[in-house]
Design goal:
It contains eight helices and seven strands. It is an alpha/beta fold. The strands form three sheets. A three-stranded parallel beta sheet has the order 1-2-5, covered by helices on one side. It has a two-stranded antiparallel ribbon with strand order 3-4. The radius of gyration is 19 Å and the shape is globular.
């Protein structure tokens, strides 16, 4: 029997895995188990800052997405070091910023580690990635980047962005999510199970699912 991979991934790394399996479904036979931590696919239930700004971001012109979004910098690190230290009167404001993006969970925080945490968050990403997530929030679909009808025809040979078929993500999966992660809030309650899953069992802090 040929050896098969066990994959452990987090967040957008699992997003990339889902896209890979959609485009190359034959690779599923090479995977025995996927341990997916906070995976992102359908994200219309996103809450927090990204959700609030989705309508603005989704309609930015393409040229405006050709940049880095929230890169780390020495100036920002200096401000963080001065204002976010444990016992600082402004540390609460630092947490307010963090939780606007990630979801509120102060009980899981080590206040002495906040400065180090924020010096790695945000760490910069493609502005187009942020716009792509905003598009999917509004469309309520797991889909490719929407370039507009003309450019979609050139890239995808259809006028609308191509859809990712999660039905092709056939390896067994264990999915782990916290209750307050804004980007994947859909996966936390039994009223909103991930699409295309045949069975799913919900726990207080994690979700175990089998495709």
């Amino acid at each position: 029997m040929p050896l098969r991979l066990q994959i452990v991934g987090h967040s957008q790394g699992i997003t990339a895995l889902y896209v890979m399996l959609d485009q190359h479904p034959q690779l599923a036979d090479s995977i025995s188990l996927v341990s997916a931590m906070a995976p992102i696919a359908y994200n219309s239930h996103t809450q927090g800052l990204l959700s609030w700004q989705a309508k603005f971001l989704a309609f930015l012109p393409v040229w405006a997405t050709q940049s880095e979004f929230l890169p780390s910098s020495e100036a920002l690190n200096s401000i963080t070091s001065q204002t976010c230290q444990e016992n600082s009167p402004t540390q609460t404001t630092c947490y307010d910023f963090l939780f606007l993006v990630t979801g509120f969970d102060i009980e899981q925080q080590d206040k002495s580690n906040l400065v180090r945490q924020l010096q790695h968050f945000p760490a910069g990403t493609s502005a187009r990635t942020i716009v792509h997530f905003a598009q999917m929030i509004l469309a309520d679909k797991f889909q490719a980047f929407d370039w507009g009808e003309e450019e979609n025809m050139a890239r995808y040979n259809i006028s609308q962005p191509s859809q990712v078929d999660l039905g092709r993500a056939t390896p067994a999966m264990a999915i782990y999510v916290a209750q307050v992660i804004c980007m994947i809030r859909c996966y936390v309650t039994s009223e909103c199970p991930p699409p295309h899953y045949k069975s799913i069992t919900f726990g207080s802090k994690e979700v175990n699912a089998r495709c």
